[in-house]
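Fill in residues.
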């Protein structure tokens, strides 16, 4: 019988002008014998971040039944090398068009509304309506991790974490793709992911030093299906084989 697992989540923030500014966040799903190590590593990561020092760190540990965890293979990965952010944006538009989204311009325009959100925008690609119950926060895809726990987890690996997230997100029947630009000022690589195209990295989607970024989950279906989709994104547990 397989033993239970633990979800560990960390978020760090700092008070600025009476508002909590998000500094970093991370999550893992691990076996009990790794708990202490993981908590220490996440704490280290919380207090040393390029966005500055945190004055509030929350580490949450929850036990989850092994039977509640879905396991999936990671999406196949390809990389698209581009020279400039403009070229990267054009590539992104092309991928949306290839996915049958002929309002790509309008969809990309929505990225301007994602800056500063803690979660992602859930966008109905046919009506262009935003489906998040709280539009300031957005929808948070959580409770997922890579399956191999032996790896070095001491610092953030943007790519691995994003591949895990994208694999979970696009596995839902109503999600036809995801667009992501990092909000980390030092990280300019972003991606488009979908069931058909896999995880397509684009090496430059913004200028270095730019703190803007965000995610859009592209939804297609009846609006009444959005609740189930949000429940899946925020609560179903998934381990991804990379
Ligand atoms: C983030 O965590 O800020 C988003 C990271 C995007 C990673 C893109 C990649 O390297 O494939
Ligand atoms: Mg980030």
């Amino acid at each position: 019988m397989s033993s239970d697992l633990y979800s560990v989540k960390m978020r760090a923030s700092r008070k600025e002008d009476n508002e909590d500014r998000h500094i970093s966040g991370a999550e893992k799903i691990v076996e009990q014998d790794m708990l202490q190590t993981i908590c220490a590593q996440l704490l280290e990561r919380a207090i040393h971040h390029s966005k500055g020092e945190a004055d509030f760190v929350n580490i949450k540990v929850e036990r989850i039944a092994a039977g509640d965890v879905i396991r999936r293979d990671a999406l196949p990965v390809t990389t698209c090398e581009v020279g400039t952010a403009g070229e990267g944006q054009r590539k992104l538009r092309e991928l949306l068009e290839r996915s049958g989204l002929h309002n790509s311009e309008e969809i990309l325009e929505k990225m301007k509304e994602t800056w500063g959100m803690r979660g992602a925008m859930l966008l109905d690609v046919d009506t262009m309506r935003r489906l998040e119950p709280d539009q300031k926060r957005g929808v948070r895809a959580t409770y997922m991790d890579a399956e191999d726990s032996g790896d070095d987890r001491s610092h953030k690996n943007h790519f691995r974490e994003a591949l895990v997230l994208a694999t979970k997100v696009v596995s839902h029947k109503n999600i036809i793709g995801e667009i992501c630009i990092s909000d980390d000022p030092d990280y300019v690589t972003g991606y488009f992911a979908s069931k058909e195209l896999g995880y397509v990295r684009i090496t430059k989607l913004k200028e270095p030093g730019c703190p803007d970024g965000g995610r859009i989950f592209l939804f297609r279906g009846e609006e009444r299906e959005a609740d189930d989709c949000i429940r899946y994104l925020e609560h179903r547990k998934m381990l991804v084989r990379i």
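The longest strand covers residues 5-16.
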